[in-house]
UniProtKB/TrEMBL annotation:
<protein>
    <recommendedName>
        <fullName>Necrosis inducing protein (NPP1)</fullName>
    </recommendedName>
</protein>
<dbReference type="Pfam" id="PF05630">
    <property type="entry name" value="NPP1"/>
</dbReference>
<dbReference type="InterPro" id="IPR008701">
    <property type="entry name" value="NPP1"/>
</dbReference>
């Protein structure tokens, strides 16, 4: 398996392979025009995405329809005490704040959504999104859905960089090339072709960006984002 990194133009994504909850409650994505599309972070042959320099346009070289066609979502879940939390990770080649400058931005970006499912109703009751170095959790009443899928948008935060926000009525129709809510193929924690391929992504160096489904970050994110008043234990064993 090659250890090299390459730009995403040469990286195909992996086929969808996710369990029922991971597939049923995955986010419905859109991407505002002033940002990149989510793409594959690793190819089937193990090549890691090299990302892009934060130069040129904010969405330069990362928002073509071909990029959208190579999107990918990585998932990992944990269930206990009547609740399941499913973390969805999306990779972007750069997170650029200013046109023509790397000021405040960085090569590589990982952003995350958590669906909190009440197992007694099989329904998403809360949604969390990562925002810069933190996270925010919302009640179901604040979230728009496409069926069972929470709608989220990759959004530029004013003069700052990007994160996922909840969709609102002003996001119809979506701004991506297909003008529809997007469902990148979901690869669940147990849905990788090999554990070697999964481990390679989890141990890859993405600079200041970090994938939160890896062992060292997964439970911490769940604990930090956990809605108040539910008995879910982020650090309990098992999944």
């Amino acid at each position: 398996m090659p250890a090299s990194a390459a730009f995403a133009d040469s990286l195909p994504n992996l086929p969808e392979n996710a369990d029922g909850y991971e597939a049923s409650f995955s986010p419905a994505f859109d991407y505002d025009v002033d940002g990149c599309y989510a793409v594959a972070a690793i190819s089937p042959d193990g090549t890691i995405n090299g990302g892009l320099k934060t130069t040129g346009a904010i969405n330069g070289s990362c928002r073509d329809q071909t990029d959208l066609d190579r999107s990918q979502t990585y998932a990992r879940s944990k269930c206990n005490n009547g609740w399941c939390a499913i973390v969805y990770a999306s990779y972007f080649e750069k997170d650029q704040a200013v046109h023509g400058s790397g000021l405040g931005g960085h090569r590589h970006d990982w952003e995350h959504v958590v669906s909190w499912v009440d197992q007694s109703t099989d329904r998403v009751e809360f949604v969390s999104t990562t925002q810069h170095s933190g996270q925010r959790t919302y009640a179901r009443s604040e979230v728009q859905f496409d069926g069972t899928h929470p709608k989220v948008v990759y959004h530029k935060d004013g003069p700052s960089t990007h994160f996922f926000r909840l969709a609102n009525t002003g996001d119809e129709p979506p701004e991506n090339h297909y003008h529809s809510w997007r469902y990148p193929p979901v690869v669940g924690w147990n849905g990788w072709p090999t554990t070697e391929l999964r481990d390679k992504l989890m141990t890859a160096n993405f600079g200041s960006a970090s994938i939160k489904v890896k062992d060292s970050s997964f439970e911490y994110l769940l604990d930090a984002a956990k809605p108040g008043g539910i008995p879910f234990d982020a650090y309990a064993g098992g999944s």
